[in-house]
Design a protein that fits this description.
The structure holds two protein chains of two kinds. Chain A is α+β, with helices and mostly antiparallel strands. Chain A is built from five helices and five strands. In chain A, strands 2-1-5-3-4 form a five-stranded mixed β-sheet, sandwiched between helices. Chain B is built from eleven helices and 14 strands. In chain B, helix 9 packs antiparallel against helix 10 and helix 10 runs antiparallel to helix 11. The chains are: A alpha+beta, B alpha+beta. Chains A and B meet through strand 4 and helix 3 of A and strand 1, helix 2 and helix 6 of B.
């Protein structure tokens, strides 16, 4: 069978937009997002589900997109870091990362923010243990994590104030 | 080196019966693919020799946790996240929740499945030792029908198991209604999150007036398969927990396990830690029957 004939049609909604893409069924969702859809926010760190730099939401669940074969993204709704806030605006977690200095080299940051947003969706008022567990799948080699945890606490506070206002 | 993607197939089937029919037509030609947390790592590393897979992920027949007065039945696609959020499992099978919490981070827990963990057959897996101490049974299904097998009889050697090429793991049964007991789980790895274990230890015990009335011990990463330690249990049953009993049980455990040197640890370290974990388990089980460690 010629190589092209092995490709399959994958229909999915990414950041609210419908896409139909012809890809190899075992292509990594990470590569499909980056190379076919040019959404380069999700990063490849380890390529084996250890570092979390490629985190996205698949049907609302946090996943490592390097471990999702494209065929399993058929009919799925996907949110990447590019879709976490309306255009030209920042999510409270993104703003908090800037203010707290939660980002240095930046490679882990998109995944870290996706994991933090996911945590705050599940646990709106996390304690320190919740934050550590919620971000345990995301590795950072620069910050020492303290500033990242501060950013999550700060975002949590801001989101609470927004709800009150 | 990365695998050559055009070589790989991953087909999606509409139902379990279609999947079983596919496996029945050409036994061994098509292999199941669940959440991908192991297989995608092998694919990326160029170490996935099998090329034809069918996806299980959308098969609702393999999902869900059902509770009856006698047993809890977990569909083989039950994820660690689903285990963690189930109130009855937290109450009656706390070690399963402990193991689920120790398995990777949130993203891995959302995709990793109990059935996948069993069929991947890693001797270092986090949940299988817990399934062993809870006397789990597996329901295996093929186009020809289904059968049940005690989980402790399932793994027969390194990556070898009693699963025919046309069979799938449909569900995992955990018997309920056993008297209260102490629960113990320790995973020893390089770091708390994400690390694969050097030794994993699961145990339950019912101790009355210092005497062991019921005990189950299972370990991971100390043999070619996860291991239920029946000889160690026999050395403990009916005995008063004291220094002599602990030493006897440690001798039984040392004879029962067969750890090796590998990239994660050494034979000697694994043996030493296993014996110390057994002692810690026994000492902490004396205090009562609440969850410990």
């Amino acid at each position: 069978m010629p190589d092209e004939a092995r490709k399959v049609d994958v229909a999915c909604k990414v950041n609210g937009r419908d896409h139909s893409i012809r890809v190899y069924p075992m292509a990594r969702l990470l590569d499909v997002l980056r190379e076919e859809l040019h959404l380069t926010g999700a990063k490849e760190g380890c390529g084996e589900g250890e570092c979390g730099a490629c985190s996205v939401f698949l049907n609302g669940q946090l996943v490592n997109s390097c471990l999702i074969p494209a065929a399993q993204a058929h009919n799925a709704e996907i949110t990447t870091i590019e879709g976490i806030a309306p255009a030209e605006s920042l999510h409270a977690v993104q703003q908090a990362f800037i203010e707290a200095g939660g980002s240095q080299c930046g490679i882990c940051t998109p995944g870290m923010i996706m994991a933090a947003v996911n945590l705050l969706e599940r646990v709106p008022q996390p304690n320190e243990e919740d934050v550590r567990v919620g971000l345990a799948g995301n590795l950072c080699r620069c910050t020492g994590y303290t500033k990242i945890f501060e950013a999550v606490v700060r975002a949590c506070r801001q989101m609470r104030e927004q709800v009150r206002a | 080196m990365r695998s050559y993607l055009p070589d790989y197939e991953l087909v999606t089937l509409a139902s379990l019966s279609e999947a079983l029919a596919l496996m029945g037509r050409e036994p061994g030609a098509w292999k199941p693919f669940a959440g991908g947390t192991d297989l995608m790592v092998l694919l990326e590393a160029g170490k996935l020799p099998h090329k034809k897979f069918f996806s299980l992920w959308h098969l609702q027949e393999l999902r869900g946790i059902r509770v009856t007065p006698e047993a809890v039945t977990l569909g083989s696609l039950t994820t660690y996240t689903e285990v963690l959020s189930h109130p009855l499992l937290q109450q009656e099978f706390p070690l399963l929740c402990r193991a689920a919490a120790e398995t990777g981070g949130v993203a891995t827990q959302n995709r990793g499945t109990l059935g996948g963990n069993i069929a991947n057959a890693s001797p270092a897996a986090d949940s299988p030792p817990v399934l062993l101490v809870y006397d789990a049974e597996l329901e295996l299904v093929s186009a020809a029908g289904s059968r049940r097998i005690p989980y402790h009889e399932f793994h027969t050697g390194y990556k070898q198991m009693r699963l025919a090429p046309d069979e799938l793991i449909r569900s995992i049964h955990l018997p309920r209604a056993r008297p209260p007991r102490a629960h113990y789980y320790r995973k020893v790895g390089t770091r708390r999150a994400q690390a694969i274990s050097k030794v994993v230890f699961a145990g339950t015990a019912r101790v009355e007036a210092g005497v062991v009335r019921d005990v189950r011990v299972a370990l991971g990463s100390v043999a070619p398969t996860v291991l239920r330690c029946f000889d160690t249990e026999a050395a403990l049953l009916g005995k008063k927990i004291d220094a002599v009993t602990i030493a006897d049980a440690q001798a039984a455990l040392a004879a029962e396990i067969a750890p090796i040197d590998d990239i994660r640890s050494t034979m000697n370290y694994r043996r030493h830690v296993s014996l110390r974990l057994l002692e810690d388990f026994l000492r902490s089980s004396q205090g009562g029957n609440g969850p410990s460690a």
